[in-house]
Specification:
The complex is a heterodimer of chains A (686) and B (354).
Chain A lengths: L21 H6 L3 H30 L9 H36 L7 H19 L1 H4 L44 H29 L12 H33 L12 H35 L6 H14 L15 H29 L8 H24 L1 H7 L3 H25 L1 H5 L5 H27 L16 H31 L37 H6 E3 L5 E3 L3 H13 L13 H17 L6 H20 L42
Antiparallel strand pairs in A: 1-2
Chain B lengths: L1 H24 L15 H34 L18 H29 L7 E8 L2 E6 L4 E4 L1 E5 L4 E7 L4 E3 L8 E3 L5 E5 L5 E6 L12 E7 L1 H12 L10 H11 L48 H13 L1 H4 L12 H12 L3
Parallel strand pairs in B: 1-5, 4-10
Antiparallel strand pairs in B: 1-2, 2-3, 5-8, 6-7, 9-10
The chains are: A mainly alpha (686), B alpha+beta (354).
Chain lengths: 686, 354
């Protein structure tokens, strides 16, 4: 067959060619492979963050614990938060966005595939950078303070950053945290912010430009809507933290005094900037899970999502209001009384759109035919637990009540009900729901349900009693508490609960590993689903859709399979089974030539360069500091230049070209030599 | 059925929660930091507001979780042939309005008493009894501008009196909290905040710095002693006295020599003994003029427990003097390498500073 060969762009370096194996992962720009990289990396960090939580809980199991030193405890609660927020929930959500956005929109890939890759590598090196503090970081006492035994530094584990993820100034400043471990947190968060910002732009452009024919905005799955809202939240909130971190960096490295009161700086300015980012960030963490739940509940209730526009608008409202409530994190600070009242009121308003979502979800399952599969259990668990977190959230809006509860375990309980009971239950729901799509196999249902049961019980055992501990006066971030406070017994219960959660995660890991290899082969449409990603083979072919789909209605796939009778009940069309098989057959055997974005070495080099740059900034006073900065910048700039010189997309010729042929920089994705005349359906085709 | 199993767990958990709530409500000395045990008018206002919101939340909780559970039970797939497919309902505009308006009304109902309480409690009253609190890593310093008294770790206030604490920090952000008497308020370097305290009855009220303030944040505790007016006046008189220096040759005198010679005097002040200005000291440390009159030391962490005996107090003091950083990591009080004999006489001297 004839091939339209785009003009070859001469490149300096040899083009990456691997389609499988190690190098294919390093150079990939395929949104699905990047999603898998995100997923495994994020889950690894989840295990690290979880082990950190267990260490914290061992220390707190009884009063006056001696398992950890103060420095170790402070470091661990800091990295636990940083890890769970920035290295697990956000990138795990990103894994879902990456994998599903193009599939749900009927697209070939995201809008900027290499930017997508660069975002992953920057995230990975950012995470490695933060944890390299264990090896390189130092953590001496505040200037003038003394460590036990006259030590100059805490133990190796203590050298992880210990300022809390909120890094309150001036405690995070050079006088009170003179060691470099805080720099690893500050610059690490800056790097992770760059990765998230790149992703968010990518997702927004993808959603606005890559929708398939007929996929109007209000025909997009709710998950896509929530992705878009999260991307906008990040786009507007990340610059705030970037500036704040930049100011803190110059305070620490170059002697500025933005946050130092004695020289005219303002410590509360840091709090305002941090929470102006930090509160929208909370919705960045929860909205993806809300999107997942909004996909799972209708499928397993066999009903459309109740109040689709209301749920979408409520998501937007939550995000918008989320920028106007930040001061409720600092109601005990010196903000004036009128502002206290105002922020109390604005915080209450958040409960309204959140309530709308909850009620619509309950209305979705009401009257349905509910199949209690593992993803459904996790989604229902999400709703139940999120209601508790939402209700305790309202008590923070009751300002005087918050004066008592702020900075206690009551807040720890609240935030874990929304982020563990909410975000993480939602993510697990998604992991089980799309497991067949990802692997082509089914997970073990029984193990999945055991995982859910243990995690639901363990979660309540861990975080439920924290409400009472907080009300009984247990303050956050204290490495010991006195036996006289009477807080010991419930702390023991909490610690036991945390190990129940850990057990449930082991069950999940076993289920994942086993089912991925030995699970039953997934049927074509295992859940009788509603969205486009189930119209293609599992696991997803590299080119996603063999035939570009056309959408005429919300939940188009469902409406192809089902009609409604006079009563409004769903009736399966007689030809539905055949239709599903045909769709998947057609999508698995494309008849046209498909061009895919070209793999590239440069994203990983750019990410690595950024990490070197950060090391250079920390050690700029050492002889090797400036060279590191120069090398880092050179790697970053040269990889961007090299990237600019790469072909936009590679020629993907039909069979007959040996992909391993060193003379060829092409890749075969169409094994059918009898295919129809080519049609350009590359990533920029819409 | 996993659904039923989780239901059972749910019920079990609810019972546990209820039991602990009962435990928390009938508090005594076993829970000295209990927020649900108000001991003054301010804490009582907050407490009653909390319970109002709590019971509204309980009602909402029961209704919403009830609806969720009922839906799961009634509408679950019975896996029988011929079960009808559900009606395909896409939404209902009236319902959307209902569940937007009703929560709004509930929230408005909570907002009214909330705003009222905020304005009633946030600011000090004009005729309050004034004290000043300064936060330092990791202890609180208290002073009484009207009486010229400076003390540390233990704040003594008169009962049934509106006390206004004017607060600031000299290093990082701290957060002053006496749960029985009021909520929290930050101590911010470079600015002043106010906190009201009011205790109905005489007694000992425990507290804790609530904002993470560095390495030994956990060891930055607070204690408030409320005294009836007559006792309070006596306490003021005592504190205003300058103690007589001990007679030469006594163990107290030997202790004083240790205080002066080993480095204690570089930071700590004892009226009538050494009186450096704030600029002259190496680090500002607690004023020890009436050390023995205070129940606790070392950031109100020692001696631990309720009503410790003199012996327990001396054991704790010996441990503290021997190696402060091991008790309070990062401590600005170094291990001075005192010998056992030095510590012994130092304790005798310090315990004489009534």
């Amino acid at each position: 067959m004839a091939t339209i060969a785009p003009p070859r762009t001469p490149t300096v370096f040899k083009r990456p060619q691997s389609t499988t194996g190690f190098w294919s992962w390093i150079t990939t720009v395929d949104h699905k492979k990047i999603a898998i990289l995100y997923g495994y990396t994020a889950f690894s960090f989840f295990i690290i963050g979880g082990v950190e939580a267990l260490l914290l809980r061992i220390q707190l199991a009884g009063p006056d614990g001696t398992f950890l030193t103060a420095a170790q405890y402070n470091g661990l609660f800091t990295t636990h938060a940083v890890t769970m927020i920035f290295l697990f929930v956000m990138p795990m959500a990103s894994a879902f966005f990456n994998y599903l956005l193009p599939l749900m929109l009927g697209a070939r890939d995201v809008a900027f595939p290499r930017m997508n890759a660069v975002s992953y590598w920057i995230f990975l090196f950012g995470g490695i950078f933060i944890y390299s503090s264990i090896i390189f970081g130092t953590n001496p006492a505040p200037v003038g303070g003394n460590l036990p035994g006259g030590a100059l530094d805490a133990s190796p584990l203590g050298s992880i950053p210990g300022g809390g993820w909120f890094l309150y100034a001036p405690n995070s400043g050079p006088q009170f945290s003179p060691g470099t471990s805080i720099d690893y947190a500050v610059l690490g968060l800056q790097i992770l912010g760059v990765a998230s910002l790149i992703s968010s732009v990518n997702f927004i452009v993808t959603i606005f430009n890559m929708r398939t024919k007929g996929m109007r905005l209000l025909r997009m799955p709710v998950f896509v809507w929530m992705t878009m809202i999260v991307a906008f939240l990040l786009l507007f909130s990340l610059p705030i933290i970037a500036i704040a971190l930049f100011m803190l960096t110059t305070d620490r490295q170059f002697g500025t005094v933005f946050f130092e009161a004695a020289s005219g700086g303002d410590p509360i300015l840091w709090q305002n900037l941090f929470w102006l980012f930090g509160h929208p960030e909370v919705y960045v963490l929860i909205l993806p899970a809300m999107g997942i739940v909004s996909e799972v509940l209708p499928v397993f209730s066999r009903k459309p999502l109740f109040g689709y526009p209301a749920i979408v608008f409520a998501g937007g409202a939550i995000a918008f209001l989320g920028f106007g409530v930040w001061a409720h994190h600092m109601l005990a600070s010196d903000i004036p009384t009128v502002a206290q009242a105002a922020f109390g009121l604005s915080t209450m308003t958040i409960a309204i759109p959140t309530g709308i979502k909850i009620f619509n979800w309950i209305a979705t399952i009401w009257g349905g035919r509910i199949r209690l599969t593992t993803p459904m259990l996790f989604s229902l668990g999400f709703v139940a637990l999120f209601v508790i977190g939402g209700l305790s959230g309202v008590t923070h809006a009751v300002v005087p009540s918050d004066w008592q509860q702020t900075d206690t375990y009551y807040i720890v309980a609240h935030l874990h009900y929304v982020l563990f009971g909410g975000a993480i239950f939602g993510l697990f729901s998604g992991i089980y729901y799309w497991f067949p799509k990802l692997t082509g196999r089914m997970y073990n249902e029984r193990l999945g349900q055991i995982h859910f049961g243990l995690m639901f019980f363990g979660m309540n055992l861990t975080f439920g009693p924290m409400h009472w501990l907080g009300l009984q006066g247990m303050v956050r971030r204290t490495w010991v508490y006195s036996a006289d406070t009477g807080l010991g017994p419930w702390n023991l219960v909490v610690t036991i609960g945390s190990f129940v959660i850990a057990t449930s995660i082991l069950v999940f890991m076993f289920n994942w590993t086993w089912s991925k290899r030995k699970g039953e082969i997934a049927p074509n449409d295992p859940w009788d689903a509603r969205t486009l990603e189930w119209t293609i083979p599992s696991p997803t072919p590299e080119y996603n859709f063999g035939v570009k789909p056309t959408v005429t209605v919300l939940d188009d796939f469902w409406h192809q399979k089902y009609d409604e009778d006079d009563e409004g009940r769903a009736v399966r069309r007689p030809e539905a089974d055949e239709l599903v098989d045909q769709l998947i057959e057609a999508n698995g055997n494309p008849e046209t030539e498909i061009r895919l974005p070209a793999p590239s070495y440069f994203p990983i080099i750019a990410g690595f360069g950024m990490m070197l740059l950060a090391y250079g900034i920390i050690y700029h006073t050492r002889p090797w500091g400036i060279p590191l900065i120069v090398i880092g910048i050179l790697m970053l700039v040269s990889s961007l230049l090299g990237w600019g010189g790469e072909p936009v997309e590679e020629v993907h010729e039909d069979a007959g070209v040996d992909p391993t042929d060193p003379e060829s920089d092409t890749e075969v994705v169409n094994p059918d030599p009898e295919s129809a005349p080519p049609e350009l359906v590359g990533v920029d085709d819409r | 059925m996993p659904g039923r199993q989780s239901q059972r767990l749910w019920r079990k958990y609810a019972l546990l929660g209820l039991a602990s709530l009962v435990l928390a409500a009938c508090s005594d000395q076993t829970l000295p930091l209990n927020t649900l045990d108000p001991r003054g008018p301010i804490a009582e206002r907050i407490d009653s507001l909390f319970w109002l919101v709590f019971w509204i939340a309980v009602i909402v909780f029961v209704l919403v979780q009830g609806a969720l559970l009922v839906a799961i039970v009634i509408f679950r797939d019975r896996k029988v042939d011929g079960q009808k497919e559900p009606k395909q309902i896409h939404g209902n505009a009236l319902l959307e309005v209902v569940w937007t308006v009703i929560p709004t009304l509930i929230l408005a109902g909570i907002a009214v008493p909330t705003i009222g309480t905020v304005f009633d409690l946030a600011e000090c009253q004009s005729d309050s009894f004034e004290v000043e609190i300064v936060g330092r890593q990791w202890w609180f310093e208290y002073s009484y501008p009207d009486y010229g008294i400076t003390t540390a770790n233990v704040l003594v206030i008169p009962t049934q009196t509106e006390v206004c604490a004017s607060m600031t920090s000299e290093d990082v952000v701290h957060n002053y909290w006496i749960p029985n008497l009021n909520g929290k308020r930050y101590l911010v370097p470079g600015s002043d905040t106010e906190l009201r305290l009011n205790a109905d009855e005489s007694g000992e009220y425990w507290g804790q710095c609530a904002e993470f303030c560095g390495l030994s944040h956990a060891k930055m505790r607070a204690r408030v002693i409320a005294l009836d007016q007559a006792d309070f006046d006596l306490w003021v008189e005592e504190q205003q006295e300058v103690p007589e220096p001990p007679a030469e040759g006594t163990p107290e005198w030997e202790g004083l020599q240790v205080f002066m010679q080993t480095g204690c005097a570089a930071c700590h002040v004892i009226s009538g003994v050494n009186e450096p200005t704030r600029q002259e000291v190496t680090v500002v440390a607690p004023d020890l003029t009436h050390f023995a009159s205070r129940g606790v030391f070392a950031g109100a962490t020692l001696p631990s427990g309720f009503n410790p005996t003199q012996e327990e107090r001396e054991i704790a003091l010996a441990a503290w003097l021997a190696d402060p950083p091991s008790i309070k990591p990062g401590s600005f009080m170094p291990d001075l390498g005192l010998t056992a004999e030095q510590i012994e006489v130092l304790i005798v001297y310090l315990e004489s500073l009534e």
